[in-house]
Amino acid sequence: MATLKDVAALAGVSVKTVSNVVNGYAFVKPENRSRVEQALEATGYRPNLGARNLRRGRTGFLALVVPELVVPYFAELAGLVLRAARELEWNVLIEQTLGTREGERDTLAALGPHMIDGAIVSPEALEARDFGELAPGIPVVMLGEHSVDLPIDHVGIDNVEAARTAVAHLVGLGRTRIAAIGAHPHRGTAAQRLEGYRLALADAGLPVRDDLVATALNYHRRDGAEAMARLLSAPEPPDAVFCFNDLLATGAVRAAAERGVRVPHDVAVAGFDNTEEGAYGLPSLTTVAPDKAAVARAAVDLLHRRVEDPQRPPEHVRTPFSLQVRESTGGA
Amino acid sequence: MATLKDVAALAGVSVKTVSNVVNGYAFVKPENRSRVEQALEATGYRPNLGARNLRRGRTGFLALVVPELVVPYFAELAGLVLRAARELEWNVLIEQTLGTREGERDTLAALGPHMIDGAIVSPEALEARDFGELAPGIPVVMLGEHSVDLPIDHVGIDNVEAARTAVAHLVGLGRTRIAAIGAHPHRGTAAQRLEGYRLALADAGLPVRDDLVATALNYHRRDGAEAMARLLSAPEPPDAVFCFNDLLATGAVRAAAERGVRVPHDVAVAGFDNTEEGAYGLPSLTTVAPDKAAVARAAVDLLHRRVEDPQRPPEHVRTPFSLQVRESTGGA
DNA sequence: GTGAAAGCGCTAACAC
DNA sequence: GTGTTAGCGCTTTCAC
């Protein structure tokens, strides 16, 4: 593996000159430049990024910390972050926390301050203020939970409004016993979506009934199915359900079908995230569609600016969303 | 950020001693050990992995190169590789090639020899022998395509047998016009699955009809839907379809439903990959289930052994699979 | 057992 | 414009 020194020796110049050429420094004598370029070609030189970064004090890596890659929303997001990061010459280290507090803590601690230039974190259990302590000195951009009061960069949609929009759509269908699946004691986004749900019901003059709010400790298909089964066996089952993500909604639809309850005829179902899976389901899923590409771009961009200038005041970027109406709330 | 030198100064010993303690070297005078440990604690020392690796000549990173993370199979696989790698103290760099030849070439070239200790590659367009040239000197483990004749480490299931098993199941249902979706001019796995399809038909004494073999240039839901639509509008539509992955199958089921063709009554559908999405679909999907955890473990393990000993002969690991029979081929 | 010092490959003062 | 050289933080001979 050729080093700068090798190239310099071959070209008959100093390492400095080679370094200048490699790094695109403008003022190099044309003759030297071409000799160096030839030597570069001949040796197949590739810079050792590790050494370069050691010297520059940066790593060239960015960490993307998500609960689980099997959750389609995070898989899609990860793909988009990968693309956005590549444009800024960042490599992405993806870490899974499995949604536990320990997972999130350990992950950030293990990455430490040397491994990465910064992190984009989609926290599930941890709260924003924890990050200051866990990752002292490492730039972090938070995804999801909107905590305007904390001094940390943040990207996300307006979860309250998004949920409110979705539930208003169910109200508009004439449904009156509208349930929610996904309440969670510690998740900020869950609290916000629940708030939006409550507001939409209040807007319509409908009561908020505790028996129609189903908790889900995880947000997988199985949890949605279980919650739906519980709701449907209650004395007064719902005629519509707003699920806090598409996975829960998929499980809910499945549970309904297994009991012979028709979607949307007997119960309309709306989800959240607009994963591609939902668009192809039977029925296809009505869902809140966050602009995931915008989230990814904003997050990478924000992190980049923070790395450049650690002193700048924290910023809260609100990305757009829309409601995708499909079969699961279509017709009567 | 404390360095080894800082710790040494605080403990009143040399960097060597600190290094010995940090790296768990056994023979350190107990007194010094405890002083160092205190200093370590007091400074909150964290080794600079970049520097360590520069010195050791390794990077601590492994690249996982996949076509796209939005494909659930790869998302699931990536999650499992992440876990397996963590046990060997490897960080994982995930790269998306988007399934193009350029993407695969550029990715490996960009990673270069310094960034990573090795790569686990799931090639779509590239063939195994390309990797030798692209990534000279960097250890590579191939996933998927089984090319026993090439001198490269490889992990995968027996695609021919797996496809044959799935199609035999459709034959066992009494179906006679069995189609295949997913033929592809350049993909090794596609060729192998097509071969298994042919063998199963031959086993049953059924003819292989070209009009029942649908090509799919991509393996997304949309492609499955399009192929199914084509098959169903033919003069003699199929009564069963074997799709080369679950995404194609999901699209195929959707396309059938849109035309009022019932699954499995009118047409039975089987997929490949056993993604969780298929288990919750309506109908749930019969599918070939590769042992993904075994694939991930074997790949990381194989790569580890190759890094330790670059001279060892290439190995081909065959991981198990099973057939998950569900609603999409259930009943008559 | 421990210390001094070289050196991994690179960048960036600083000198010329 | 280009060469010399120190040093990023670490591991590791080689002395002692």
Task: Write a short abstract of this structure.
Chains A, B: Pfam families: LacI (PF00356), Peripla_BP_3 (PF13377). The structure is a homodimer of 332-residue chains. Chain A contains 13 helices and 12 strands.
Reconstruct the topology from this structure.
2 copies of one chain form a homodimer.
Chain A: H1 4-11, H2 15-22, H3 30-43, H4 49-56, E1 61-66, H5 72-87, E2 91-96, H6 101-115, E3 118-121, H7 128-134, E4 140-143, E5 153-156, H8 159-172, E6 178-183, H9 188-203, E7 213-215, H10 221-232, E8 240-243, H11 246-258, E9 268-272, H12 276-280, E10 286-290, H13 292-308, E11 316-318, E12 321-324
Parallel strand pairs in A: 1-2, 1-3, 3-4, 4-5, 5-11, 6-7, 6-8, 8-9, 9-10
Antiparallel strand pairs in A: 10-12
Helix pairs in contact in A: 1-2, 1-3, 5-13, 8-9, 10-11
Chain A binds a DNA duplex (16 and 16 nucleotides) through residues 3-5, 13-17, 19-20, 23, 27-29, 32, 47-57, 114.
Description:
The structure is a homodimer of 332-residue chains. By secondary structure, chain A is of the alpha/beta class. Chain A is built from 13 helices and 12 strands. In chain A, the strands form 2 sheets. Chain A has a 6-stranded parallel beta sheet, with helices on both faces. The longest helix of chain A is centred in the C-terminal third of the chain and has 17 residues. Chain A is elongated. The termini of chain A are far apart. The relative contact order of chain A is 0.11. The mean pLDDT of chain A is 90. At the A-B interface, α4, α5, β2, α6 and α11 of A face α4, α5, β2, α6 and α11 of B. The structure holds a DNA duplex (16 and 16 nucleotides).
